[in-house]
Design goal:
The structure is a single chain. By secondary structure, the chain is an alpha+beta fold. It is 39% helix and 15% strand. The protein binds fe (ii) ion. The site of fe (ii) ion (FE2) has 2 residues, from loops.
Length: 390
């Protein structure tokens, strides 16, 4: 897994689709500008990179997660990824060591990747698409870009609610959408569920991002799945009424706002607190120190989670190697790298989350299927907009 200190120091956050969330990239990656590789600063540039090959180490472990790849030494797996984490390269190196298959990495935001695959047509070299958020994976599936596969390894390793029922995509790490608060102020009494956030006693306390953001959409889709459209619209009205300020910025901005006394309840994915915790900047670490986390709905359906995931491209020239790569991603060592890279939760039981996430404690996850959440997303957005959640 390489040197831990170096690896942790090089973390960055993913680029996001400009169409969906133009503010996310600048707001949230601004947290670590000095440690981003210069060549990833231009997301509009599709950047191929042939990764190191360590074929001498290819034998061990290959039998379990990458069996029978004929002619592996002569092949190159093309991975199209919108996850721009330096540590993902360790994953690709690990796959090459196991399988002997080289990896060529194309990085861009997911809309650019989908457009490129479409433009390349039947001749596309793309084998695997890697991205974050079930909604984006479902969008790739709807665009006809993904090839459903059957894999006993993936069916056994990946929990059913974190993969597409047809096998078009699989989740390899999760992020939980939680409530963060200043531990000095404490959690306001009576707050234990997402539903509570809409109650009048929490007026002026909630700091969250806009309704058009894909995290807001997925979160609201999970409320919609649990409570139905009428209750969800009433809830969204309550959220809009309880905001501490007009929705703005990314998750890190919500955390910073609450730390600065603007609102008391920040809605954020867990990994943003982890990134602040291990930031090179002392003021970021001080913010992380002040915040505590509520995992909502522990007494009922559980806390909403979304996924990072991947699927085999329909026109993949190397289908068996692409499937072997997905199976490799479910191995315990790969899971640790995949999840630690952005401080997300691994999806398999035999891989540990990062120590910081473990320090937040165990929690119950909402078992809502990620595909169902994605399917409810358009309605969730309409509900939020009708409710006046900007
Ligand atoms: Fe993010």
């Amino acid at each position: 897994m390489g040197n831990m200190g170096v690896r942790l120091a090089r973390q960055t956050c993913e680029w996001f689709s400009f169409a969906i969330s133009p503010s996310h990239r600048t707001q949230e990656t601004a947290m670590h500008p000095p440690i981003r590789r210069p060549d990833t600063l231009r997301p509009d540039t599709l950047r191929p990179a042939t990764l190191r090959r360590r074929s001498l180490l290819a034998a061990a472990g290959a039998a379990l997660f990458a069996p029978g790849l004929a002619g592996a030494q002569d092949r190159t797996l093309a991975i199209y990824s919108s996850r721009h984490y330096d540590t993902d390269r360790e994953l690709y190196d690990g796959f090459t060591r196991q399988s002997g298959v080289r990896v060529r990495l194309i990085e861009a935001n997911v809309d650019q990747l989908l457009e490129r695959i479409r433009a390349e047509g039947a001749n596309s070299p793309a084998d695997v698409l890697v991205t974050v958020d079930a909604g984006r994976l479902a969008r790739a599936q709807e665009a006809g870009v993904l090839l459903p596969i059957r894999s006993a390894v993936l069916d056994q390793r990946i929990p059913a609610h974190l993969r597409d029922p047809d096998g078009a995509w699989y989740g390899f790490s999760t992020r939980a959408r939680v409530v963060m608060y200043d531990r000095a102020q404490g959690l306001p009494a009576g707050l234990a569920r997402y539903e509570d956030l809409a109650r009048p006693e929490f007026r002026g306390m909630v700091s969250t991002r806009s309704s058009s953001n894909i995290y807001s959409i997925g979160w609201t889709a999970s409320v919609l799945a649990a409570n139905g459209p009428e209750a969800t619209e009433a809830w969204a009205r309550g959220i809009a009424a309880n905001l501490s300020r007009p929705p703005q910025g990314g998750d890190t901005d919500q955390i910073r706002a609450v730390a600065a006394g603007q609102g008391r309840l920040a809605i954020s994915n867990t990994y943003y607190l982890g990134l602040l915790h291990r930031s090179a900047r002392a003021e970021d670490r001080a913010v992380a120190e002040r915040m505590a986390v509520l995992f909502p709905n522990q007494g009922d359906r559980g806390t909403h989670v979304n996924i990072s995931g991947a699927g085999v491209v329909r026109t993949a020239p190397n289908r068996d190697a692409a499937q072997a790569f997905l199976e490799y991603l479910s191995s315990a060592p790969a899971q640790s790298i995949f999840a630690d890279g952005n401080m997300e939760y691994p999806v398999v039981a035999d891989a540990q989350p990062h120590a910081f996430l473990r320090s937040l404690g165990d929690f119950r996850q909402d078992p809502l299927n990620a595909a169902r959440m994605a399917a409810l997303s358009p309605e969730a957005l309409r509900i939020m907009q009708r409710a006046g959640w900007r």
